[in-house]
Request: fold
Amino acid sequence: MAESCRRGLFVTLEGGEGAGKTTQIGLLGERLGAAGVDFIVTREPGGTPLAESIRHLLKDYREDPPNAKAELLLFLAARAQLVESVIRPALESGRWVVSDRFSDSTFAYQAYGRGLDLESVRQANAFACGALEPDMTFLLDLDPVRAVERRLGREAATGIAADRFETAGDGFHSRLRKGFLEMAGANPGRIKVVDASMSPREVSDEIWKYLAPII
Ligand code: T5A
Reply:
């Protein structure tokens, strides 16, 4: 654990587009609730009014799309706000925080994906959120081709159009996956790789195998 004053557990779900993070957070929430864990769920970018506004700019504003550095700084602005007003207070009061994405997404998308220097991205991220690091991260690993199929299925069902990241091209999504897997290889204690091609219930069981003993 990166910060000794914390009492709640900080859990993040990571992965490429459409890997099933939102679905898994719903299932995990049911299990945590049944186990009597006091927790909150949040997402990145987002989770506060300011950060949700930044989310809209990042995902859907196409009139003057941010360049790679501007994009990075917008993600970090949203994170700085979320960490100080939501995540840190919750952890310090003993609540668990379950977040749909966190810093690993920035390293994967803005460094591996967009090509920004990884060390510079790490330093900028540390400035934005201090020493805060998740206690446990589940990387939902899915072949980008399968992810596109899922996304198209969801688009057909909901009518919600793809955002700037979902339409970024195959090379981008392959680099993300490589980046996530490299980070998992370098941090095996924190980042658990879960095969996201399994059914939602099987993926949830796999995640629960790690969390149940902690509870
Ligand atoms: N980003 C984010 C950065 O570039 N840098 C950063 O620092 C951060 C924090 C956020 C975007 O911002 C980028 C990453 C993102 O591109 P978002 O909408 O939050 O945008 O994007 P995602 O996190 O990718 O969210 P999605 O909703 O698109 O994907 P999920 O949550 O991974 O997937 P989910 O659960 O919605 O499932 C997708 C579809 O698949 C089905 C679901 O029913 C749904 O239709 N599904 C399954 N089907 C079969 N088997 C399973 N196991 C399934 N699980 C889900």
